[in-house]
Design brief:
- The chain is an alpha/beta fold.
- 36% of the residues lie in helices and 16% in strands.
- Strands 3-2-1-4-5-6-7 form a seven-stranded parallel beta sheet, sandwiched between helices. Strands 12-11-8-13-14-15 form a six-stranded parallel beta sheet, with helices on both faces. Strands 9-10 form a two-stranded antiparallel ribbon.
- The longest helix has 15 residues, at 12-26.
């Protein structure tokens, strides 16, 4: 079946046949209470689609909900009571072509035509710091040009009927960067509801699952990917600049570090020499669990810090390549060096120094940051988003 999937993805003739069948089926009446969810290209059961799905099945039990998944990542979906449909399979074709609603947080294949009467909600997956879409001045990604990348991006965005936004700041950027002119749902991010609604039992269960020793505090290291650091098209790499050996020597008595790499980064970390201190959670199903057990976040330019801010806990920004990233790769939407809600550091020694400063100190996010970015987050964003989608509220 995996070989068939690859053929569908890469064979133009098969794509054309599949597309024709899809278009024919999409002419049939919509299944008005059918929703297809997908997260990160079918790789995860996570993010805003997951939060919306969980709200729908609890409050709209008469709706038929399906999860689109990539068979390579099927383990990510095991242990949940989900109706799964394998990407590009016959069941995926039959379900997606007639579903009234599509909910995704990343792009669906452009060669799959969206039926006119299907409502496609794009939830996206982060508050933007780094430039997006047509706002990127020069694209450094493999297998594309700047013009082609922007054309593909806007072509995909033109199919969205609704776009989810976490705040007014993001809405303004999304409209411009995506050339989006349809309905914006400014609700806060549903995925952040869990940061307000999780229980102490959840915390204990997550720590046990990751084998975190009792009494140890948790550092979450969640960096983003670099557009120009790749093996090939769609296969990005990441070079770990954080010196784990030095970190273990200096803070290992009190902390463990959980590493969560971006979903686009394909390399596998070998952390065997740091057993008991460093944990690779890059394939953990949903980063929300890692947020709630983390006492401290270390990141760089990733949008994870906007989400983690809802917990009002300390953050350190390890930005060893900030000059290149800011001036050559992406660029930022605001003065990150001045407005980041935590210290910016460029080497492991400075990271350790900032960790030590946290001992016995209190922490609170700057008021201007919460007023701009987290003011809509209250644990009920999924309710608002689902009602806007299904009831037009």
């Amino acid at each position: 079946m995996n070989s068939l999937l690859k053929k569908i993805k890469h064979a133009d003739f098969i794509k054309k046949i599949y597309k024709l069948i899809f278009m024919f089926l999409s002419l049939m009446p919509r299944k008005k209470k059918t929703i297809v969810f997908e997260s990160f290209l079918g790789k995860q059961y996570s993010c805003n689609p997951r939060a919306m799905y969980e709200y729908v099945i609890e409050h709209y039990p008469d709706y038929d909900c399906y999860w689109s998944y990539d068979p390579v990542y099927v383990k990510q979906f095991q242990g949940y009571d989900l109706k799964l449909i394998r990407r590009f399979s016959v069941s995926w074709l039959l379900t997606l072509s007639r579903a009234k609603y599509w909910v995704s947080n990343s792009r669906l294949p452009l060669w799959i035509p969206k039926p006119p009467k299907t409502i496609y909600l794009q939830t996206w997956h982060g508050t933007p710091l780094k430039k997006l879409g047509v706002d990127i001045e020069e694209v450094h990604m493999p297998g594309t040009t700047t013009a082609a990348y922007k054309q593909n991006f806007t072509s995909e965005a033109s199919r969205w009927d609704m776009l989810l936004s976490p705040n007014a700041y993001s809405s303004a950027i999304f409209k411009r960067a995506f050339h989006f002119e349809k309905e914006m749902i400014e609700s806060g991010y549903p995925r952040n509801d869990y940061l307000y609604n999780h229980s102490l039992m959840d915390l204990s269960s997550i720590r046990n699952k990751l084998n975190i020793p009792v009494g140890k505090k948790v550092i979450l290291y969640a960096p983003t990917w670099r557009d120009n650091d790749y093996h090939a098209k769609g296969k990005y790499k990441f070079s770990l600049k954080l010196d784990l050996k030095k970190l273990q020597q200096e803070v290992g008595d009190d902390y463990v570090i959980v590493l969560r790499l971006h979903y686009l980064i394909s390399d596998n970390l070998d952390l065997s020499e740091f057993e008991g201190f460093a944990i690779n959670a890059s394939t953990y199903s949903d980063i929300r669990d890692l947020y709630v057990i983390a006492d401290l976040l270390i990141t760089d330019y990733s949008s994870v810090f906007f989400d983690y801010a809802n917990l009002n806990r300390p953050m350190i920004f390890f930005v060893y390549d900030i000059d290149t990233y800011r001036d050559q790769l992406r660029g930022f939407y605001f003065d990150f060096e001045r407005e980041a809600p935590g210290p910016l550091v460029k080497d492991t020694e400075a990271v350790i120094a900032e960790i030590r400063k946290l001992t016995g100190s209190s922490f609170s996010l700057p008021d201007h940051f919460t007023r701009q970015f987290t003011y809509l987050e209250d644990g009920a964003a999924a309710k608002r988003a689902v009602e806007a989608l299904l009831e037009g509220k």
